[in-house]
Structure formats: structure tokens, C-alpha cells
Amino acid sequence: MREAEMDVRPALAMLEELLVEPLAAAYLGWVRHDPLAQLLLPAGQADPYPMYEAIRSRGPVVPVARFGQITVSHPLCRAVLRDRDWSVRGDAPNRGEGRLSFLELDPPAHTRLRRLATPAFTPRAIAGYGGQVAAVVDRLLDGCSPGEPFELVSRLAEPMPIAVITELLGVPVGDSAEFARHGATIGGALSGIQSVAHLARLVQADRRLAAIFGEVLALKREQPAEDLVSRLVAAEPESISAEELVPFCTLVLVAGFETTVNLIGNTVLALLNHPDQWRAVVEDPGLASAAVEETLRWDAPVQRTFRVATSDVELAGRPVRRGQMVVLLVGGANRDPDVFADADTFDLSRYAPGAAPAPEHLAFSAGIHYCVGAPLARLEAAVTVRRLAERYPGLHRAGPLRRRPGSVLRGLTELVLAA
Ligand code: HEM
Question: What is the CATH number of the domain that holds 261?
Fold first, then answer.
């Protein structure tokens, strides 16, 4: 009975999301003009920024029909993310076997599991990836014929982070193509389930990924190496239980893949839409990091997260009851005009070497859940942009652009370029 419940419940929840959510969003968005639901409508997905400004004009905290309240205020988002009185637990299970492991957990389980991930992302560990990332980018670009248009996402932005994560985790290269496909399916579902076919793919991807990780875990128990999965099995059972292993690995894959693809696509698009700034990077490829940082602020790959109040609190003078949710629209907070001058302007010089320190953006969150992979994501995107600028100074758009569906993750699925 319990096993059957465990199998059926997630599928029912997903079906509800598939069938009920879009209808509810359409009704609330079109009919009731609910600001959060409007973000889910096609116009909100294409360009959420005017909607964030409309929300801002209504005050620091705005009630919404579902999910309690929303905010685009930078100081409020930052304060909630850093305050231990707020939980990441919506209805996620209480232990590490939830789909996204410690991202969905509060301390002490969060602290215990996150501690196992951090050694893979220290500055020293990350510095070791610089050469590898450049080599992968060059190999992928070598595969593009000179003078021929190429599609950035499938040729470069997707295969590069997958190559890095498979190496980091210790997944054998032979499994990486299938691994990438399933990671993309699960990562894509963070922005909502789009169709029955998508739901079926999601369930299948979840199973296959668990099977692949099962094999990798068995392999690393037999033949430990210098990778994250080997470190995890060495920490078992004191610091991580058997059931917590697959969700942990899935989190690292899902959190580190789709987000980085979006960061690369969003940065290249922002630069090519601002030719003076593309030229600045071509003239000084050292500015690639500043371009990536400004893109994180100006067009964040993760547009929102949420927290749940663990006690009755006040937020900007509004009462929030224990158990109520606040949706933190970090993509809008990053354009808070009280914090960033000319907040709507894409200007990489804010983060250029020698510039006055800019306020921190919230693209990687803040507080105890601050993205553990941030240094790796910055490195991967900066090296990619740098190599593009060095190899293709005349890079320009040469075909269609397509956005991924959904309003949590913001990024491209297609961007055709020519050099
Ligand atoms: C552009 C790329 C990335 C963006 C925008 C991003 C964004 C985020 C955000 C916003 C969170 C926190 C969510 C919250 O507070 O509710 C987060 C957490 C996390 N990210 Fe990233 N991420 C990126 C890349 C990566 C990479 C490359 C990895 C690893 C390979 C990674 C691994 C993680 C993990 C493990 C967490 C959970 C941290 C915790 O709960 O303590 N991310 N990320």
C-alpha cells in the first residue's frame, strides 16, 4: 500500500500540474489580472520585465490568488532568502529522497548534504576546469564549418556543460548523451509540464536517470576515483543514506545543466543585441566575465524561487501566516531601480575590472541555498563567450530565435548565428 502510494502520488501531482495549472493560470491571468498568473501567459513568458515593473508599482509585497504573495523588491527578496525563519519546504518530502535533494531541504539535513557537495566547487577545484572547458568549447566549435550558420544551443551551449558535469560526477563518457537528454527533460519540467507527452517523457527520464546513477554508484563503490560520486559513496552511510544518493546526483545534474545552457544563450543574445558591447568584448576578451555577470543580473536564467514562513511574520508591514508562501521574483529584483542605477539597461561596464563594486544580484539566490555551482557556471559561461569573441569577432544573428516554454527558467532553445 505505501509503495503504491509513493509511486502514484508524484504522477497525480504532475497530472494536476498539467491539467489544472494552465487552466487556473489562464483564468487568473486573463480574467482576474492576477500578476503572477500573467507571468505564465505567452506575453509574460516572452518578456516578463514590464510585468515585474507593474508588480513593483503596486508595492513591495503584492497578494496573489494562489501562492500567497509575490515580491520584486531586491531588499525583501534578499532578506527572505537570508532569513532562517523561512523554509524551502513547500510540500516536498522531509528527507533527502525528494527529487531535488538538499535544494528542497532545511537544516540540519540541508547542511549535512550540502557539505558533501562543496569540495567539488572550491576555487582550487574550479580553477582546474578552466583548461578543460576551453578545450571542450574549441572542439565543439571546430565541428562548425567556417562561414556556415550554426545553432548555438545544440552545437555549444548544451554539450559543453554536460561534458563538464559528467566529468565532475564521474559518469562514464559512453552514458553522457542519454544522460544529457534525461537531464534536459527533468530540468525543463522545473518550468512546468507542457503536455501529456512531456509528462510521459518526464516519468521515463526519471527512471532511466535513476538506473544510470545506480550503475555509476555501483561502479564507484568498486573502483573509486577522484570524482563527486566516489566521494558520496565514501561518505555513506554516516553522512548520506542509500536513498539520498540518487536525488543528490540528480540535483547536481539538473541544477547545473539547463541553467548554464540558459546563461550562455542569454549572454550571447544580450551581447549580439548590443553590438557596441559585443565589440568591447572582442577588443578585450577579458570582459567576457563582466558580460556574463551583467547577464545574470539583467536576464537571469532562474527567474524566481519561493520560501514558506515557518512562523507568523510581517513582510513590509503585511502579515504572513505560518505556512504561507512568498514567491521571490529574483529576475525582477535584479532590476530594482532603488538598488541598480539604470536597472533596465544592459551594461557590462558595471562589472568590468576597476568598476566600483556593484550591489549583488540575486541570480544565484542568497543565504544558505546560494548556488553551490556558481563559480563553475561563471567559468563555463565566461570561457565560452571569450572563445567565441576570440574566434568569431564578426559573430551575428543569422536566423530564428526560440525561447524555452515556462516562466521559472528563462533561456533559449534555438539561436542561429553566423561568423
Ligand atoms: C547559470 C547557471 C546557474 C544558475 C542561474 C543557478 C541558480 C541557482 C539558484 C537560484 C539556486 C538556489 C535556489 C533557491 O534558493 O531556492 C541554486 C542552487 C543550486 N545550484 Fe545552481 N545555478 C546555476 C548553475 C549551477 C551549476 C553549474 C551547478 C553544479 C554543477 C549548480 C548546482 C546547484 C545546487 C547543488 C544548488 C542547491 C544549493 C542548496 O540548496 O544549498 N548550479 N542554483
Answer: 1.10.630.10
